[in-house]
Membrane protein
Amino acid sequence: MPQGADADQPGPRAGTLLAALGVIAFSLTFPATAWGLEGFGPWSLVAVRSVLAAVVAGGCLLTLRVPLPGRRHWAGLAVVAAGVVLGFPLLTTLALETSTTAHAAVVVGLLPLTTALCSALRVGTRPSRTFWAAASAGAVVVIAFTVQQSGGALSSADAYLFGALLVCAAGYTEGGRLARVMPGWQVIGWALVLCLPLTAPVAAIALSQEPVRLTAHSVAGLLWVAAGSQFLGLVVWYRGMAAIGIPKASQLQLAQPLLTLVWSVLLLGERLTPAAPLTAAAVLVCIAVTQRARG
């Protein structure tokens, strides 16, 4: 049975909406992780979220009797698994033990440009100079804002954050490529299932070694990062990327750090500086330019 792309591939507008929904889901990841860390250790949180997401994804794959991917796709799925299922969640969770969500948002501010660069190298996309100029400007604006929010000082968490940036960009790029030849939900679904032989025993060991304190916040945070960030968010994200292209979809993530800061104020009680509205306006301009630029 061939595994082609979705027969009802969404158009550009629908693809943009789907990718935007993915960004909204991702913007809640850091605040939800901060909630989860109130009751779980970092290794427990990352492993359990992956196991829960894999159970949901595996159930869908079994119910719909989806055949195994072709052998030629397993290497790409391994990259997705290493980047977005294991690498990014683990590295950012470790960073958030000592970093604020505002500082961690630096990673997301750099991610759109890094993903576009990975796409150019891996997939051969060639966006226009206007696209690169707007994307770079947006990245600079977001970096300046988030660094200013964190006081301008680099922390010991930066190594985790920049490592997360690289592995996630690779995972996004490979996932967007695979979503052109198989449904996006199957891309993340198989990546999650592929990790299950590793994440399940790690979860059992971590839960036995790290203290667990179940609270409303910790449970809600765990459930969101498992179902929202790790599965549903990636489903719509990969489907959107397949429809509008990896570079354009990646630039929608320029809004993610600002959304994360808004959630941080509402959910974590962090304070937002007056610079936020000005930064939001500048970022929205950059997004508009990248979405209209050729490529």
